[in-house]
Write a structure and sequence with these properties.
alpha/beta, Rossmann fold, 46% helix, globular
């Protein structure tokens, strides 16, 4: 009986992740928020969080940054994502970035969180339709900051109604038109 108790305690200790200090920021997962609908969590945000939970629990990630401010509601997107994800991951693993209003601010504010901790790699999760913009912005911001780290991008796929899919596609096209008008390629 005493041996079984000792074995189970050892197993628990091995499975616990360290969540404090610089070492815990070696592999960081960043989840980008999405607009919040008034009647609950939007499907897009839920899919991103679901993908993040799966990846976090199957990988060697020690921190998850939930990035998103209050764009369409008083409650920040990061807090809503935390409510969904904290049911499956230890609350100490989360860092909430609650100020960003767009993808550029997601990148800048996440950089502010991780720059002093010098992670080896980061993985960014967003939607498939939002991936091109996310890659462009994060690579641009992190290159500008002269940060040498491994950046990976993972998309959360969605089945969306055709009208919503068209609207989201149109928003992405508008983003690229703005870049072209500003002379940025």
């Amino acid at each position: 009986m005493k041996q079984k108790k000792k074995q189970s305690k050892t197993t628990v200790k091995k499975n616990k992740r360290k969540v404090f200090g610089k070492k815990n920021f070696q592999k960081v997962l960043i989840v980008l928020g999405s607009s919040v609908m008034v009647k609950g969590y939007p499907r897009i945000m839920a899919e991103r969080v679901r993908k993040a939970i799966s990846i976090f629990n199957s990988g060697n990630y020690s921190k998850m940054i939930l990035s998103g401010g209050s764009v369409s509601t008083p409650l920040p997107e990061a807090e809503l994502m935390y409510v969904l994800a904290s049911k499956h991951i230890d609350h100490k693993a989360f860092v909430l970035e609650k100020n960003s209003q767009d993808t550029l601010q997601n990148a800048v504010f996440c950089w502010d969180i991780i720059k002093s901790r010098k992670p080896e790699s980061i993985t960014i999760i967003t939607s498939d339709f939002h991936m091109r913009r996310t890659k462009y912005i994060f690579k641009s911001v992190f290159a500008h900051m002269k940060n040498k780290l491994d950046i990976d991008f993972i998309e959360a796929n969605h089945f969306l109604p055709p009208l919503l899919e068209f609207k989201l596609f149109f928003c992405e096209v508008c983003f690229y038109i703005k870049l072209l008008l500003r002379g940025i390629k």
